[in-house]
Design brief:
Elements lengths: L5 E6 L7 H10 L11 E5 L13 E6 L17 E6 L8 H18 L6 E3 L14 H9 L3
């Protein structure tokens, strides 16, 4: 089992998406990923386009790489982190996504002995990134139930 020290939060920077689509994008990158880079993906109800909202998929959590497998989501920090990606533009997440993010994060924190202080936005490790579009304090307060 990997020694997990961080949860790193991302956004897709797209108004729609799902595992299948993000996996395709990751494999088309240059250089390409061999598979989906995140451990988890939280949908916003628009899996394939913004033309159709599927309510039951708003907040749905899709598993990605197994937690036992090193992710490909934050260069230099993949070995000891879990990557969670929320579908959406930076900071534009649904209430259902926030509820699912809180539940998923609490489950990961419990399994790996982490606290809210171990949650970070991707932009904290790469100054060129805006994702996830909300501050680390907002992420941590969401976990603590303060948002």
């Amino acid at each position: 089992m990997r020694k997990i020290k961080k949860i790193i939060v991302h956004c897709s920077n797209s108004p729609f998406g799902c595992y299948r689509l993000i996996d395709k994008w990751h494999k088309e990158r240059i250089p390409p990923f061999d598979s989906f880079g995140y451990n988890y993906l939280i949908l916003n109800g628009y899996p394939f386009s913004t033309k159709e909202h599927i309510t039951i998929l708003d907040g749905h959590i899709e598993p990605g790489r197994p937690e036992s497998m090193i992710g490909a989501h934050c260069f230099g920090y993949n070995k000891n982190s879990i990557g969670i990606c929320l579908i959406g533009l930076p900071g534009e997440f649904t209430n259902a996504q926030k509820v699912s993010f809180k539940a998923l994060s609490k489950s990961i924190m419990h399994r790996f002995g982490l606290s809210a202080s171990d949650i970070y936005g991707h932009n904290e490790f790469n100054a060129n990134k805006t994702c996830p579009g909300i501050t680390t304090n907002e992420l941590r307060n969401l976990i603590r139930g303060q948002l």
